[in-house]
Specification:
This protein is α/β, with parallel strands linked by helices. Helices cover about 40% and strands about 25% of the residues.
């Protein structure tokens, strides 16, 4: 089975969402279904149908999260040897060679990626180009906006 990499923070976020779905959302929707049933005819009961649809969404999400956690390989980057090499979970300071702009990204799993938070997916073009490189290396990356040359300024294991 292929293990999906997750950071410690990403695994905790999934566990937290799972706990909320099971302990808060699921009981709430079961209660809403019972209340809607009490109103009578289910064929024309919009509240009942909406609650059932919500229940289906919640149960699907619970199954999805449980599957992801079961197949996850949680990687604690703080326990890896800090040798300046870019690996999953590290935070990388980059400098655009052409413009001089500085960028900071953490390389994370698909579910954790959020460009606004500076977290890029392990499967993104930039992350794929950086993996295995070291501080001081320059990488050329093909991104949707064209080619970029990036220099690895610092690799942080935080």
């Amino acid at each position: 089975m292929n293990r999906t990499p997750l950071t410690v923070r990403g695994a905790e976020a999934l566990r937290s969402e799972l706990k909320d779905l099971k302990n808060v959302q699921r009981p709430r929707v079961v209660e809403a279904i019972a209340e809607a049933r009490a109103h009578g005819d289910l064929k024309e009961n919009a509240e009942y149908h909406a609650a059932r649809e919500q229940q289906g969404f919640i149960e699907g999400r619970i199954a999805e999260i449980e599957s992801k956690l079961a197949g996850a390989q949680v990687i604690d980057v703080t326990k890896l040897p800090a040798n300046g090499k870019v690996v999953f979970g590290v935070t990388v300071d980059l400098e655009d060679v052409d413009s001089g702009d500085t960028l900071t990204y953490q390389i994370v799993g698909e579910d954790e990626a959020d460009i606004k938070q500076g977290r890029i997916s392990i499967n993104s073009p930039i992350a794929r180009a950086l993996i295995g490189k070291e501080e001081g290396d320059e990488v050329d990356v093909v991104v949707p906006g064209g080619n970029r040359s990036l220099e690895i300024v610092e690799v942080k294991y935080i």
